[in-house]
Amino acid sequence: MREQKEEYWGKFALTYDNDQEYIAGKAILQAITTKLHEERDLGEVIEFGCGAGYFTKVIAGKARHVIATDLSDQMLEVARVQLQKFQNITIQKANCEDTSFPSERFDTVFIANLIHVVENPMRVLQESHQILKDRGLLLVVDFTSYGMNWFEKMKLGIRYLKKLAMPPRHSRNKLSPDELVSFVENIDFKVEEVRLLGDKTKAVYLRGRKA
Ligand SMILES: C[S@@+](CC[C@H](N)C(=O)[O-])C[C@H]1O[C@@H](n2cnc3c(N)ncnc32)[C@H](O)[C@@H]1O
């Protein structure tokens, strides 16, 4: 399953950022970027599933250092090129469901558009909890069809299939803010903020603190 997933995402690495703009639309990507710009002093950051680095560059402006990780070598290659001018980003391969980072190593864990594609989101959140320092920040943003009208959902589905074909078996795309809150509270994070961003297409944005 891991190899299958790696191969699926790897195929789209070169065009992923453009595909994402086409599928989700520039408006939601801009809404996420604007929200991320409100973050301050993120310190030592680990990003899971960085893809081609679309949001990594925003986070890097708010952090001392970012380790941007992904399962796919092809995605990491593209990220390495696109992020080369940033002195404070290190690119590294890691499976977010089973990393080898030491406990309490990071100030912030950043996860963008990954929770809906991983096999076991609770495992990713547990891993995040373990590698965060005490009072560390969990920052999750995830595309969702929750709150979208039927017509927009249909159009989104067609745009997705056109660009990325059938998603891996574990994709789930209806995550509500309440569901995400219950996921992270289960792992002992205290939720500081959760909101649904976007108009036609949407994303859930959550800030949680390691309790
Ligand atoms: C939907 S893309 C999001 C990319 C990026 N975060 C963004 O928002 O532009 C999901 C990414 O997660 C990666 N991924 C999937 N499963 C993973 C895992 N178990 N560990 C690390 N990365 C994973 C994929 O290779 C892909 O690059």
CATH fold-level assignment = Rossmann fold
Pattern of helices and strands: HHHEHEHEEHEHHEE
Main sheet record: 7 strands, mixed
- Radius of gyration using CA atoms only: 16 Å
Characteristic terms for this protein:
211 residues; alpha/beta; 38% helix; globular
How would you sum up this structure, described in words?
- With 211 residues, the chain is α/β, with parallel strands linked by helices.
- The longest helix is centred in the last third of the chain and has 15 residues.
- The radius of gyration is 16 Å and the shape is globular.
- The N and C termini lie far apart (33 Å).
- It has a single domain, classed as Vaccinia Virus protein VP39 (Rossmann fold, 3-Layer(aba) Sandwich), CATH 3.40.50.150.
- A seven-stranded mixed β-sheet has the order 3-2-1-4-5-7-6, with helices on both faces.
- Strand 6 and strand 7 form a beta hairpin.
- S-adenosylmethionine binds next to helix 1.
List the helices and strands and how they pair.
Elements: H1 2-10, H2 16-24, H3 26-37, E1 44-48, H4 56-60, E2 65-70, H5 73-82, E3 89-93, E4 106-112, H6 121-131, E5 132-144, H7 150-164, H8 177-186, E6 189-197, E7 202-210
Parallel strand pairs: 1-2, 1-4, 2-3, 4-5
Antiparallel strand pairs: 5-7, 6-7
Helix pairs in contact: 2-7
Task: Provide a concise account of the structure shown.
Helix content is 38%, strand content 26%. It is α/β, with parallel strands linked by helices. The protein has a 7-stranded mixed beta sheet, sandwiched between helices.
